[in-house]
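Weekend entry, working from home. Most of the wet-lab plans are on hold until the incubator is repaired, so I used the time to fold the two sequences that have been sitting in the queue since the last round of cloning. Logging both here for the record. First:
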Amino acid sequence: MRTTVFNFELRVIACQVCGAPVEVGEAGGAKACSYCGSSQEPAARAQAVARSAAMPEPERLDRLRSQLGKPTRVPQPLADLFVGFRLLPWKVSEALGRWRRLLADAQRDPEVEGALERLTRALASHFGQEGDPMRERALLQAALEAVRTPRHRQSLLAALSRAACRVGDAAAAESWLRMCDPTSSNLEIDSVYRATRALVATYGQQHEEVLQVLGAGGEAPISDEYQVPCAVLLGNALERLGRVDEAVAVLDRGQSSSLARHRAREFVAEYSGIELCPMSGPAALARQAERGAALSSRAAGRPLIMLVFTLAVLAAGGITAAVLGATSTLGGTLMAGGITGLLVGALAPITVIEFLRSGRARRLRRSGRPEIATVVHARYGGQETMGVPQLLYKLMVFPAGRSPFYANSALHADKPTRERLARGAVVVVRMDPERLGDVLLELD
């Protein structure tokens, strides 16, 4: 059996001065930090989340479903540290400073527990991906011992369980998960348990258990934050059980927006130790790419409309010239032909440009690299097609592993699209890998 830094028998907290991991005893007591020398005096180890009162399962599920539809957001005081749910890498030092202040404040002010829990999970994920699992554990356990609200304790315990999964410590993952409440009637508390239970079962190749936890068709009510991870885990379980078509359908539904697909990609990468959805994942993405390419093409330009209009002008001019040739003078025929030629000459370049725009949009949607961005502002592009204005969006793009940069993306935006792409909105763009400034807003 593999033992890791997430071993449940250990107790590791983060130093309240420098943030370094400090191993302490179950009963607490004074312990010096080996990095900065400051004295730590933690209390006795916190206990499991209290179990919810028993109630009939149908009633519990009804209560959970009644709480659906509430979006999850980063607490406003932390918003400048994040883009979406991603902690900005260059903000880590500042985030650690805020985390230490929140940790101290949580001892006397339960109102800060939500911000502490969210920032802790983000920082822990950062250090986990940077290959520092001891720092990851120390942050999670220190915050766990500072909060008292069941929802936040459940979230941090589940995060420890998932972290143990990621490093292959199945025993620790189960031990941390046993500290959670498995039958809560609070949607957020229940969802974090279901998602983590499904992940632990996935690592143990217990795919039937994943279906029991989430429902074969995804019937279990899941909060906004965990819907995408649960869809990926359910799709993987169905695929491993030989039900690939059902898996593709689940992933197609669960990743039906650009942000959902981006979250799914991040989740699969985070748990790359197990190959999630190796067949159904690409199949669902290919299905969505074709739909998205068609939508992006229409939003980028209207080449078919321009082509039809140009051909109509050409046909009308030809008919007029023929009629004049049969009934009037040569001068009238030449004038009609000349006017037609001028109109076609003006329309043809526009038609070519529209085809080029449309082709570029299809190419980027199919093969561009997806990245997170935010909308800085939008301005009128000076064109309308069938009453739909073309807008030029200025974006701040946050490519993984690179510095952020500004980019522009033009599209025909109807009213719902304009509302969705309001200033400050978090979006996904498709970026040309060879021309970083060439981006396309992913609309589907």
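Second, folded right after the first finished:
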Amino acid sequence: MREYLTQSAEETRGLARQVAGKLEAGQFLALVGDLGAGKTTFVQGLAEGLGAIGRVSSPTFVLMHCHSGRVPLCHLDAYRVGSGEELREVGAEEYLEIAVVVVEWADRVPDFGPAEALVVRIAYAQETGPCWKQAEVRGNGAGSSAAAEGMRRIVIEGRGERPAAIVRELDTDDFGN
């Protein structure tokens, strides 16, 4: 498991681009986080890193967007879904072996996807949520004040052999910007 603190949406996308560089078809990513935490921003970075074609936006109302690229990307949103069965009904399982499959709000559909997965938890860097403006950022024992509107705490966990290896390969502080 690795934990990151990103200071902006661009850093969040940069971290995701780094993750994308380790992915291949058949990888499953489960994204978890509050509304507005940055799940779609993370997927945008994955798409950039995978060479995906087309604009990446949240598929909340259509449930699934697929993009071709160096590695195909299938982006699902389970926010309005009651079970994994609804994702299976739109054909999402067909992509599990031929694309990188990413599910936003994956905690709402624990019955969908393989047990072997990268789990990405994204949260506001402080408990006060999206409206706070300043935070004390600590690194290497030194404190510095920073505009914190875009700061996110991102925890990436590998469940299974290959996902755990991907997590071990990630840089701890270079987001590839």
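Plan for Monday: verify the second prediction. The beta strands are 2-6, 28-33, 64-67, 73-77, 100-104, 117-124, 134-139, 142-147, 152-159.
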